Amino acid sequence: MEARGSSESPPDQPKRGKSKTPRKAKDSVLKQKSPAEFFAENKNIAGFDNPGKCLYTTVRELVENSLDSAESISELPAVEITIEEIGKVKFNSMIGLVDRERVDEELYDDYETAKAREKRLAKAARNQEIQAKNAALGKKVKEPTPSKGMKGRGGASFYRVTCKDNGRGMPHDDIPNMFGRVLSGTKYGLRQTRGKFGLGAKMALIWSKMSTGLPIDISSSMRGQNYVSFCRLDIDIHRNLPHIHIHEKQEKKEEWHGAEIQVVIEGNWTTYRVRSYVVDLCRCQNSSKILHYMRQMAVITPYAQFVFKFVSDTSDKSMTIKFARRTDVMPPVPLETKHHPSSVDLLLIKRLITETSKQNLLQFLQHEFVNISKAHAERLIGEMGPEFQPKMLIKSLTDQQIVRIHQLFRQAKFEDPVGDCLSPAGEYNLRLGIIKELHPDMVATYSGSAQVFEGHPFIVEAGVSFGGKDVKQGLNIFRFANRIPLLFEQGADVVTRTALKRINWTSYKINQMQDKIGVFVSIVSTKIPFKGTGKEYIGDDITEIATAVKYAIQQCCIQLKNKIVKKMQAREQQERKRNLSK
Ligand SMILES: Nc1ncnc2c1ncn2[C@@H]1O[C@H](COP(=O)(O)OP(=O)(O)OP(=O)(O)O)[C@@H](O)[C@H]1O
């Protein structure tokens, strides 16, 4: 039998005469990558997809860190965000690069021939004429989209993003690792925080390194410190280590605690622009994603004050928007909780054994997990088998014995964790937000009790509104997770899918297509099951969460239905009276 594909007769041997030396596959070489390198190469998975999104995600990460920080010390947050546009000439002078005039125009991406330019200008003139006619007739005027010739490649530019807060600040010695080492942070425990991965601020730095080569500046002061820590650093991508330029204690000139972070990145404000910066923000559908985010953040965080500044290269486009604090009542600080036995895996049990300060098995079970009392722990040890004793040293457990504990944890019944470690937005805040955002005719809110998925407690709160002057017809969905507004990947999110597919709106006298419906859903948990590190949406695959979202929306709909029916009855009665009096 012919040995097909053997070394003597390779199936795809090059044809004679075409190439004398057959291509040889290179031997694969084993390489390692640092986490910083990995995220630099795959920055899209952390929400840094393109310059516009990079600017948005940078602002988002810095704002969320500021809020986490202020809330952790029960301080009413006051956050100042400034985005300063830096033109190419200014940027070049900042880095000491002499600006050079173009010589060979044809080399450039935005080069257009005289004919193409003529055609573009003629088209623009035609459009302008149509717009003017439409405006005169009172019709909607569409904003012209800049053509390639006008804006060049994607309209990207440079921006200095500064975020200043009144939070906890950071210990002087920890700052380099907090900002210069990917996957390092203080929010890894089981606590409801906006941050989780120890990645966001470092991604902003990696992007600044990739796009401008400039370092990040961090100023910080903690309560009781009589100095300001200043650190300028970038990141050694290959070693995932901070590369410190300056790290010093400076004189504290004013009473302040908090942090101020400044980073210069490439971005794109124009694709994320406001239609007009004087428009009423509540009505602006086309507003910049960043402003949209800020507005929704103000909705879900009414106890915070935000000042947002955009400083344009051309001063006429500059703006300052203040999102004033609307209440002084802050939700309680979320508490750190212990692991639920049904949520731990083998690796985690081993880590807990290594880290525990407890001596024996009984103490370990009782103190390292929620919902295991002393009596319960004794019963569990009895169930593990004869070689397990309450007093046996925890560090002496063999690998097999740890597997036995894990198996029992997965099979045994445990009470659900309670939600007292969580800090939901609260029905009051949701209602406040809906009224501010949509000015509806009717609104109903609902706050569910704590539930559990994979051993993690979560709470779903919802608000559904009906009507409103400037609300578009159909479903207007607003999603929040651990009090972060979610603006991207709407279609795949559990809230959108539930509202679109699992709610029978007509049974609540609501017309899903024609009525103006606002749906607000806020989910808080010690672990939000985000899809991806960009924290952009919650998948639809966790039954417990999908069911709770559906139930919360339904509860609002039941309340609304009563109001709608009453309103309809009142209208019918009025009509009858009017007919009788005719
Ligand atoms: N404004 C700030 N005030 C105080 N500490 C901060 C501030 N910004 C960052 N930090 C500290 O730096 C750490 C790292 O921040 P980073 O944004 O990289 O990750 P994270 O917020 O922990 O998680 P995530 O990647 O999910 O956002 C934080 O855990 C926090 O301890």
Automatic annotation (TrEMBL):
Residue ranges of every copy of the DNA topoisomerase VI subunit B transducer domain listed in the record: 417-576
EC number: 5.6.2.2
GO molecular function: ATP binding; DNA binding; DNA topoisomerase type II (double strand cut, ATP-hydrolyzing) activity; identical protein binding
Substrates-to-products reaction catalysed: ATP-dependent breakage, passage and rejoining of double-stranded DNA
Keyword Signal: no
EC top class named in words: isomerase
Record key words, sorted: ATP-binding, DNA-binding, Isomerase, Nucleotide-binding, Nucleus, Topoisomerase
Biased composition (Polar residues): 1-10
UniProt xrefs under Gene3D superfamilies: 1.10.8.50, 3.30.230.10, Histidine kinase-like ATPase, C-terminal domain
PANTHER family recorded: DNA TOPOISOMERASE 6 SUBUNIT B
Family assignment from sequence similarity: Belongs to the TOP6B family.
Protein name: DNA topoisomerase 6 subunit B
Organism lineage: Eukaryota, Viridiplantae, Streptophyta, Embryophyta, Tracheophyta
Gene field: TOP6B
